[in-house]
Amino acid sequence: MTETNDPDIAQNPELSIWEALIPVIILIALLAYNVFVFGDDALSGSNQFILLIGGAVAAIMGFRNKVTYRRMMDEVGSNLASVTEPILILLFVGALAGTWLVSGVIPSMIYYGLKILNPSIFLPASVVICAIISVATGSSWTTTATVGIALIGIGTAIGVDTGMVAGAVISGAYFGDKMSPLSDTTNLAPAMAGAKLFEHIRYMAYTTVPTITITLIIFIIISLTLDTSSAVDTNELLADIEKSFYISPVLFLVPVVVILLIIRKTRPLIALLAGVLFGALFAVIFQPQVLAELVGKADGMSFSDTYQAILYAITVDTAVSTDNETLQDLFSSGGMYGMLGTIWLIVCAMVFGGIMDAIGALARISQALLKMADSTFSLFASTVASCLALNVTASDQYLALVVPGKMFSKAYADRGLAPENLSRTLEDSGTVTSVLVPWNTCGAYQSGVLGVSVMDYFVYAIFNYLSPFMTLLFAAFSIKIKQLREPQTD
User: Fold this and answer.
1) Residue 464: CB partners within 8 Å, gap ≥ 6?
2) What is the value of pTM for the model shown?
């Protein structure tokens, strides 16, 4: 068992390509059957167990090739440590959703959104709104946890399929995540490829701008053909929202604070905690009747009653009563408790990915793809395939950038290709496709936050699955393929 200098990439020369692929094949086959049997309920626990079975199969391959149990558990531990912050972010997002519900922030977003947006422009407007917020914050996660949740609510109210709305939200959010200099992946990709940040962003625009343009055109066409005859009367909805909450533009100060903190490069956990606390404060100030309802107090509220109501909203299932059936789901939140299923999925995915890394399977799959690169186009195609494979097998967006970035950088230089080619391809295929894999940290997060399964939004996440095809199209026709002055050789 040997390792490269990068601890994220373990290599095992004794492992064959078929031994590396067997756990992946078994995992995909079992997950497919599991979804066939359980449908949407597969995410309630059975998919998590299937990921552990995949990890067990990978461990067997490891034992056959002299990888120790301790080595595998160390890598699993390292993987779990790498998702500590995402897990905490998920918990804070659950808390945020709870306090923003009882404070009237989300109801106010839905209220004013219903007044401004209509079905004919809703989907493309959702893409643009999320793109702007994501470029400003550098975070697709923050974007979906704030405006994304509100847009899902608005879409439900006006009769737009939630899968469509989630696809539009994710398309816009990942455009910004990919193009913003504040984004961690936008900084990581050029670092792995050896490119400069702003040169990377400028070069990435060649493929990204056409992709987001096509995405907007498709959503415009969908919007024009949308049948929203099942939508309820928005005037009735507006009146019922006002019955349950105090509605005011002042409540938008809470999300504005969170977005400004992120723009100023405040750590996401700190920004989200601030959002939770400000949401709780605004609930006490503006929505005392909602808090009284949560603890069943018809008369005056004591300090302990208020404290109890706020903690209920933060930690467990919370629902604000309404006679309007459409608003019942919108006026409910799972709090931190509602995120536990997603966290469970991420933990099990990290077990599978950690064992696959420890036995050298991730490096072996990337090396096999690299050997197939006997032309410039096949080099690009191998990079795309490697990123996609790692998003499926490692279940982690960052490994889908790091491993191919390290493995392919010399091959690009040897062909006389500038590092921007590699960094752009990593983002076009690694960053944006992570959200299309249900057990990837990004897919699990977005599904949990938006309340829409990956299977439901997959076909509408147009920007995300179109991006790899766009980068391959540019490679096939040698469009904007930047060359080094001279090919590098040993």
Assistant:
1) 170, 171, 174, 432, 433, 435, 436
2) 0.80
